[in-house]
C-alpha cells in the first residue's frame, strides 16, 4: 500500500481551474480499486491519496494521468507502507 502526498506548487485558482479533471482522474482509479481514500490537507496546501499498486513504478505511471501532475501544479511524494493493524471494519486494508 502507498501513501501519496501531494503538495501544491501553484496558486489555488490554477488548481481549481482543472479540479473537475482531477476528480475524474480520482473517480477512475477508485473504480479500478487502485485508490482507497483521498482528500485535501488542512490547510489546503495539497492532498493525500491512499493507494494500492503492484509497484511504485506502476503507481507513478498512474499519477502522470492526473491534471495536477500534467500541468505541474503539484509535487508528489510516495511512501510505501505495510498495514499490519486496522480498526474493525477496515481489515481489507491489511497486507
Provide structural commentary.
The radius of gyration is 14 Å and the shape is globular. Helix content is 33%, strand content 27%. It contains four helices and four strands. It has a four-stranded antiparallel beta sheet. The model has no long low-confidence stretch (mean pLDDT 95). It has 95 residues and is of the alpha+beta class. Strand 2 (35-40) and strand 3 form a beta hairpin. The chain has helices at residues 12-17, 19-31, 56-63, 67-70, and strands at 2-8, 35-40, 46-51, 74-80.
| Oligomeric state, counting identical vs distinct chains | single chain
> Could you state the order of secondary-structure elements as H and E?
EHHEEHHE
Uncertain segments are none
Give the biggest sheet.
Answer: 4 strands, antiparallel
Helix content: 25-40%
Fraction in beta strands: 25-35%
From the spread of the alpha carbons, the general shape counts as globular
Termini distance?
8 Å
Reading side by side through the largest sheet, how are the strands ordered? 2-3-1-4
- The helix/strand class is alpha+beta
Mean pLDDT: 95
Radius of gyration in whole Å, from Cα? 14 Å
Q: How many β-strands, per DSSP?
A: 4
